[in-house]
Specification:
alpha/beta, Rossmann fold, 22% strand, Methyltransf_11
Length: 268
């Protein structure tokens, strides 16, 4: 059977995380509290503000927003990811789960104070999302796009983990979520000016968490692939090589692109 039989390249962003939702919810890193301080201080977002978290996934960033007393629309088109978020955030009355995509949220015109997209923007249709963001943001509203980006130079483990992804990723190079295209982001915010901030972040993982972190991505081999067990064994060996007292550390920088957005676009 050909290698293309197992390719994920033909899957849309809406469905390609379906098999990874459980691992994503348990093993992806959260985001540092510095991001919330940025929303408060640089964007002027007050407690009780309405936020649309676009591509909310399993609710990792939505949970931080809710804990900071923001009201949140969690916009997520993937049913498995959305179900994880609904279960995780069921105790937050200010969380409203919405089955919709970035390009058509279904929210009212000028109904939100801020839009966030955490490790999600690279999946959007940029032009359609830009129009939709301008439609739902209040005049003077803010938008923040952020990613947890691995620092491959931080340790030998991080470098070899990157090699593992390149070796077993079905379309890792094409997706390149780890390569944020700054010029495209600036065009997305135009004619407004985009600001950039970066904060350190890290994650401590036991062996189960390390394997779960690996399996949380959408571009690796599926269990039915003939090289799947080879990949898992390579990951186990990598963990064993670098673990200390049963744990390894992942190092990230959380990169944020933010700025005013709604006012100019809403006048279009």
């Amino acid at each position: 059977m050909s290698e293309n039989r197992y390719s994920l390249a033909s899957l849309t962003p809406t469905v390609r995380f379906s098999n990874a939702a459980g691992h994503y919810a348990r093993h992806r890193p959260s985001y540092p509290s510095d991001v919330l301080h940025l929303l408060e201080q640089a964007c002027g977002l007050k407690s009780g503000a309405m936020v649309a978290d676009i591509g909310a996934g399993t609710g990792l960033f939505s949970q931080l927003l809710l804990a900071h007393q923001y009201r949140v629309f969690g916009i997520e088109p993937n049913s498995e990811m959305r179900s994880k978020a609904e279960a995780q955030l069921s105790n937050y009355p200010d969380f409203m789960s919405v089955d919709a995509a970035a390009e058509a949220t279904g929210l009212d015109d000028h109904s939100v104070d801020c839009i966030t997209a955490a490790t999600a923007f690279h999946w959007f249709d940029k032009e359609k999302a830009k129009d939709e963001f301008g439609r739902i943001l209040k005049p003077g509203g803010f938008c923040i796009l952020l990613w947890n980006l691995r620092i491959n130079e931080a340790s030998p483990l991080m470098g070899e983990y990157e090699t593992l992804l390149n070796q077993y990723g079905t379309d890792y190079r094409e997706i390149a979520a780890h390569k944020v295209q700054e010029e495209g982001i600036r065009q997305f915010f135009a004619p407004n000016t985009v600001q950039v901030a970066s904060f350190p972040n890290q994650q401590k993982l036991d062996k189960s968490g390390f394997l779960g972190r690996l399996l949380s991505v959408s571009y690796l081999l599926e269990p039915e692939h003939p090289r799947y067990e080879e990949m898992i064994q390579a990951a186990r060996s990598l963990f064993d090589k670098y673990q200390r007292d049963g744990y390894v550390e992942f190092f990230y920088h959380t990169k944020c692109y933010y700025g005013g957005f709604g006012e100019l676009r809403s006048k279009k």
